[in-house]
Every structure is written in C-alpha cells, then in structure tokens.
C-alpha cells in the first residue's frame, strides 16, 4: 500500500502562499495546462512528416518529437500533433523556468539589451560598455564562494574544454617555478605539437561500473574525459588520459553505510595510485568530476568522498574542476550542488551551462591566464543570454524557487520510495537531491518500455546510464506537478506489471 498520502510533507505557509496560483501569471495563450492531453501516438503523424523533411537535410535520428513552442507553457510541452505532456526532462535539463515564462517573454524590452542581441559582439575584443557590470552583477552574484573569476563560453563542452586549458596553464607555470614567459624552444615546439611547448599533461576523469561514467562534452578535449556512451567516442582519436573509479553505492544508503564507506576508500585509494603512476608518463594537471554523475547513471558520491578528493588534488598540485553543467542553478535545492558537500575550501573551478542559459566557468584568481588569447574565441558567450539569466535569477529569488525545489523534491522522492515498495520487481535505488532525482529499473529493456509508456500516458521523461530513469524538471515544478507525475508513473507501472503477468 502506498504511504505517500500519510507522510507527504506539507508546504510551509510562506511557500504555499507564494506558489498556490503559480500559473496565474501566464497570459491566456501561454497559461499552463492542468493535466496532460494525449491525442495521438507519439510521435504523431505531423511529427513523423517533419522528421522525414528534416532527415533529407541532416542526420536527425535522435529527434523524439517536434515541439510547438507557441502552445507549450510552464511545465508542459506541446508537440506538433497537439499532444501536451508533463515535461520532466525540459530540453535535457536546460529550462530553469519552464516554457514561455512571462518574465522571460518580456526580458528584451530595454533598447541596450536588444542591441546586444542584434550586434552580437566579439566579447574577447570588442565588448559593450556595460559588459563588466553585467559580469559582476549577474554571473558573479551567484558565483560559488571564493571563485571571483568568470569566463563566459557558449556551451557546457567548451566550458569544460577551456577549464582544462586553465588547469594546464597553471600547472605549467608552477613547473617553471612561477615564470610566465616562454623559451624559444617552447614556442617553436608548440607549433609542432611536441614537448616542451606542448607538454605531456593529462586530466583525470571518472568512470562507473559496466563501462558507464562521466559526461563532460563532445568537443575533443572534453570528449577525452567523457565515458558515458561509446557512440559519443567511436572513430575519433583521443588523448590517453587517466580514468578513476566513481563510487558505486548500494541502496538504501542507510542500510549499507559501512559498505559504501569502504567503496569511497577504495575509489580514493585508486585516485592516489593514478597520480603516482602517471607522474612520469603524463602528469595529472587537473581532475574533473560531476557532483552527480548524470549521463552515466545519476551516480552519487558522499560529501566525505569529495572532501578527501579535494585534499588529494591539493597535495598533488592538480586543479579540482567541478562540472556543474547539469547540477548548477538550483535543481538540487541549492544554487550549486557542491554546496551540499561542506568542502573545507572552494573548488578550483566550477563549470556551468544548461539552466544558466550561458556557458562558462568560475575560477580562483590563481587560474586567470597571465597572457591574453590563452582562453579565447570569437564570441566567448552571448550577452543576450546574460539578459535572460538576470531575469531567471531574479525570479529564483523573488519566487523562492530553491525552497520550491526542496519541497517538490521531498514529495517526489517520498512518492518514488512508495512506488519502489509497491513495485520492487520493477524499480529500485531511488536517489537524488531536490528534484534532481532518479531510480533504477530491473533491466534496460523494461526501462525503455516505461519511458515509452509514460509518454503514451502524458509524461516526457529521460534516461541515463545502463537502466536508470532520471527526472530533470524545471525549477517551477511544484508539488501538484509531482503528484501528477507520481500518479501517471504508478499507472504506467501497473500496466507493465499486469502485462508481464499476462
């Protein structure tokens, strides 16, 4: 029997008042629906026709459906065939305020913001007069504590890529005894892709059991640290860089405390071994790690694991780079997921994108390159994205969205645990923080059936790892949306359970 109704947490009065009429702020044409509406199979005939049209132009085998953004609103996505789905995947975890939020629809009312959008400056060479204040007032206003430098980029992959470069620059300076100038030999050999100008240095990343693991992007440097799916890497030459083991926990956590502590120790010991083994071959200049290993299966590690990892990095002179592309901007109930870890000092760099709407990385002053053009490209981000991010951050604050994420997350997680008890043969290992949640399914094939049936029943969801289903809703996902999701998931599991018995 479900326990959710009995123990469902109540919203605090201030939060309840804030979110009682959430959708009322939408205009008539963008008012959030009250429930999913499914009219056709998904994808329907219009989406299939559009797929055929697009397939003649480019490879589009990854396309699930075509979105009607005019009819999408709040937590609901509309498709070309008139289906309206509760979206718990939100453009791969990238919509902080859902679809067509009224504040974002009116974000570009200021002439200077429109000119920034139209003129699209090369920010590394010709930034607008208000660019320094925008960096300070928008991006640095939510910077992780102790990280006073920020470099803007276009996406998560190039954010990680350039954070790696910053780690290499600092490591090389330290090896030169602090010198920031170059010898003639270094300059000549760099153009030939040879040492000493192009030194043999590496970035450590992490994998999980069964060949799943980290995801840090698909550009060449970041791809060398991505280890979640073979399709991302096949046929591409890559760097031979070290890979450590990400902890693989047993759930429920409270029942396997000792086993999981031993797992932490084993993985940390292996990190130490890699630092020693690679010292002569290709010294490790940086360690990149996700606070929650997302694409690889929503794998979690304890605060103690991250605290010890930070100490190991510091002892070896390597930068600790936290990839918060997916976990940043509030989905775990804090602005940055690593805030849950009580690190003794700030990480060296934190990369971001997705819900932040722009890419980039925060860094300690130590990682500011001493010369121009070391971290550089034509656009280095897009000032119009900071206009949107400014709006998002104001809504997060005024609407107390981090409180909402925590409350909705409690309802979701509680309900998922109930379903885990009701359908132990199907789902297990419920885990996560805030609404950044997931659970495992007994097989990959059954996981895919659940996702397909959820869609048929009105919910758009996402998968990760070998057999996990992940939730990546917007920050405006309220307890009422959690209840709808849980009801539809229960209906879906009942259907599949009955089908298996038949």
From TrEMBL:
EC numbers, comma separated: 2.6.1.19, 2.6.1.22
Family the UniProt entry places it in: Belongs to the class-III pyridoxal-phosphate-dependent aminotransferase family.
Coiled-coil segments: none
Single GO BP term: gamma-aminobutyric acid catabolic process
Pfam families documented for this protein: Aminotran_3 (PF00202)
Single GO molecular function: (S)-3-amino-2-methylpropionate transaminase activity
SUPFAM superfamilies cross-referenced by the UniProt entry: PLP-dependent transferases
Record-linked InterPro entries: 4NH2But_aminotransferase_euk, Aminotrans_3, PyrdxlP-dep_Trfase, PyrdxlP-dep_Trfase_major, PyrdxlP-dep_Trfase_small
Keywords of this entry: Aminotransferase, Pyridoxal phosphate, Transferase
Name by which UniProt lists this protein: (S)-3-amino-2-methylpropionate transaminase
Cofactors demanded by this protein: pyridoxal 5'-phosphate
Residues spanning the signal sequence: none
Gene3D superfamilies in the cross-refs: Aspartate Aminotransferase, domain 1, Type I PLP-dependent aspartate aminotransferase-like (Major domain)
Gene Ontology terms: cellular component: mitochondrion
The keyword Plastid is annotated on this UniProt entry: no
């Amino acid at each position: 029997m479900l326990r959710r109704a009995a123990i469902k947490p109540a919203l605090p009065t201030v939060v309840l008042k804030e979110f009682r009429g959430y959708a009322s702020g939408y205009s008539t044409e963008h008012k959030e629906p009250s429930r999913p509406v499914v009219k056709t199979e998904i994808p329907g005939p219009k989406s299939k026709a559009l797929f055929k049209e697009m397939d003649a132009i480019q490879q589009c085998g990854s396309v699930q459906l075509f979105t009607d953004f005019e009819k999408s609103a709040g937590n609901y996505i509309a498709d070309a065939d008139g289906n309206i789905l509760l979206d718990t995947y939100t453009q791969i975890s990238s919509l902080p305020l859902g679809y067509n939020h009224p504040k974002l629809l009116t974000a570009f009312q200021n002439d200077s913001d429109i000119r920034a959008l139209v003129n699209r400056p090369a920010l590394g060479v010709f930034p607008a007069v208000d660019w320094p204040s925008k960096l300070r007032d928008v991006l640095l206003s939510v910077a992780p504590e102790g990280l006073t430098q920020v470099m803007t980029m276009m996406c998560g992959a190039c954010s990680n890529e350039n954070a790696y470069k910053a780690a290499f620059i600092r490591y090389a300076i330290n090896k030169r005894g602090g010198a920031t100038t170059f010898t003639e030999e270094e300059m000549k050999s760099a153009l030939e892709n040879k040492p000493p100008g192009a030194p043999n240095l590496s970035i450590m990343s992490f994998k999980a059991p069964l060949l799943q693991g980290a995801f840090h992007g698909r550009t060449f440097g970041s791809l060398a640290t991505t280890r979640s799916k073979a399709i991302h890497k096949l046929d591409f030459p890559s760097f031979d860089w070290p890979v450590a083991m990400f902890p693989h926990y047993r759930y429920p956590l409270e029942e396997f405390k000792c086993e999981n502590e031993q797992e932490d120790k084993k993985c940390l010991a292996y990190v130490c071994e890699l630092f020693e083994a690679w010292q002569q071959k290709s010294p490790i200049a940086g360690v990149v790690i996700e606070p929650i290993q997302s694409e690889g299966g929503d794998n979690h590690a304890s605060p103690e694991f991250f605290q010890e990892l930070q100490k190991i990095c510091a002892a070896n002179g390597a930068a600790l780079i936290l990839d918060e592309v997916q976990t940043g901007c509030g989905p775990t109930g804090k602005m940055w997921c690593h805030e849950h870890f009580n690190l003794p000092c700030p990480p060296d760099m934190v990369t971001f994108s997705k819900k932040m709407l722009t890419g980039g990385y925060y860094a300690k002053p130590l990682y500011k390159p001493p010369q121009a053009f070391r971290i550089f490209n034509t656009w280095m981000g897009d000032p119009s994205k900071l206009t949107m991010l400014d709006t998002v951050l104001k809504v997060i604050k005024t609407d107390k969205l981090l409180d909402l994420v925590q409350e909705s997350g409690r309802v979701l997680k509680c309900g998922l645990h109930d379903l885990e008890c009701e359908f132990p043969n199907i789902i297990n290992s419920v885990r996560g923080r805030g609404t950044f949640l997931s659970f495992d399914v007994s097989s990959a094939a059954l996981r895919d059936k659940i996702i397909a049936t959820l869609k048929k029943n009105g919910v758009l969801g996402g998968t990760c790892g070998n057999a996990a289903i992940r939730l990546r809703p917007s920050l405006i996902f309220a307890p009422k949306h959690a209840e709808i999701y849980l009801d539809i998931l229960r209906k879906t599991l009942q259907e599949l359970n009955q089908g298996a018995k038949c």
